[in-house]
Amino acid sequence: MDAADVLETLPITAWHGPFDPALRHQALTALEHGKVLVLPDLPFPIAPDEADLLRPDVAGAERKNVSLDPRTGRLGNTALPPQQAGRLTAMVQRFADHSARLLADLLPGYAPAMEQARTSFRPNEIAGRSTSPRHDDTRLHVDAFPSRPLAGRRILRLFSNVAPDGAVRAWRVGEKFEPFAQRFLPRVGRPLPGSAWLLEQLGITKGRRSAYDHLMLGLHDRGKLDAAYQATAPHADVTFQTGTTWLCFTDQVLHAALAGHCALEQTFHVPVSAMAAPQLTPLRVLERLAGRHLA
Ligand code: SIN
Ligand code: FE
Does 131 score more than 90 pLDDT? Predict the structure, then answer.
């Protein structure tokens, strides 16, 4: 595989439309077919008086990223004192607002149904970070989160590299979702009877974990824990320069983040019903492979 198989580059230069219908169609088609949409001419603007915020120690020790709930404006996991934290909140909130506007204008078919989830600032260097294999995002995986059942809803993520020293963000992108799912689905066991109910009662999941969520978590874990797969799976290594913005469905695109620091990220959830090609979604692919309804 090479970069051309997994990336689609668009000449977008503004965080808002109007965008040409042909360009919007190209963006939609590439995303739903599991490509990473790259916008090399769309830097996220950092104000001169924000430059001092682009450093690892603005993040707290609890988690690797600083994160914002863009609906409440509350910033989590920052080590900054309140005054400084206000400036960081404003920067991350501006990224959230720019991202929402870009997607509303570029993917208007999604906009009415799309939910804006958390925004994050990722100042820490990825390379050399020690984590458990399950949390190790330098291994190829599709995104699936234990506490947040989605019942088939898509995870669309937009990133921008804002590293002040010009460091690239290096990703590995793997094979298509279907061959990956075909390989690992037989290795995902059934959930214990009653476990979805119990996880919800205990507050471990926000809502009931569906069969879809169980399988996606299983694929995430089985894939990351298979050292032979990680060493030999088809992939293309790609880099995103400072000043580059990119987005993809991370529940569908096999990806690993290998190196880099100082990225901003915005997550959106989009229902399958908003897709132009629902048959390409992980939910429909898994339902076809499993021969049953999953959500
Ligand atoms: C990931 O979703 O695996 C991490 C992506 C990144 O931070 O570049
Ligand atoms: Fe991921």
Answer: no
The CA 195 to ligand 2 mean position distance, Å, reads 25
Kindly report, residue by residue over 158-167, the tens digit of the pLDDT. 999 999 999 9
Cβ–ligand 1 distance for 172 under 6 Å, the answer no
CA torsion, ordered 86, 92, 97, 98, to nearest 10 deg: 130
CATH of domain 3-290: 2.60.120
Ligand 1 centroid, distance to 256 Cα (angstroms):
7
For residues 25-33, average pLDDT:
98
**In the chain, what are the domain boundaries?**
3-290
User: CA-CA distances (angstroms) from residue 85 to 58, 109, 207?
Assistant: 8, 35, 31
Q: What is the pLDDT of residue 50?
A: 97
CA 227 to chain centre: 23
Mean pLDDT taken over the chain: 96
